[in-house]
Design goal:
single chain; about 180 residues; five-stranded mixed barrel; two-stranded antiparallel sheet; 4 helices
Length: about 180
Amino acid sequence: MNVPVGSLALVPAQLEPLFSTTISAILFLAGAGLIVAEAFAPGTHFFVLGSTLLVAGLVGFFIPAGLGLLAPLILAAAVLVTTAVTLWGYRKIDFSAPGRGQSLSSSSLQGQFGTVTERVTKRTGQVRLEDGGFNPYYEARSMTGDIEAGTEVLVVDPGGGNVLKVEATATDDDDIGGV
């Protein structure tokens, strides 16, 4: 059977089998897999791409074959809308730890109090912030000298959120109350 090449362009992508599976099924399974991966590695943003692929697969299942070139446009619109809604929801709604706070920017960390979990020096260390969000543990560096584990600290410079610069809030040699 001779089929003109130009007429193949009118066949929707979801009807092209790949290893005897439709592209819609592959999109659906890939999306489901990424959502499961997000459950094992929270915060990696697999959820956004996973939900988008999942919806694209579902939409692809229900697009009639007779739509021709309109089918990919519908699928593209579904992908764009799902991505926008999922990304907005993922950033705005605190799914991970309701009531524990969510850091939306590194500047929101400035002035936060925390406790040293690993000795903080000018080169290494870790702190746990009181309102640090889902994962309250941050790498930290000392502004002055070494700060021992268990000491309360104040974030002086969030440093872009990756490595915080901290100072101890109180020292043993305070003269408050003494003469």
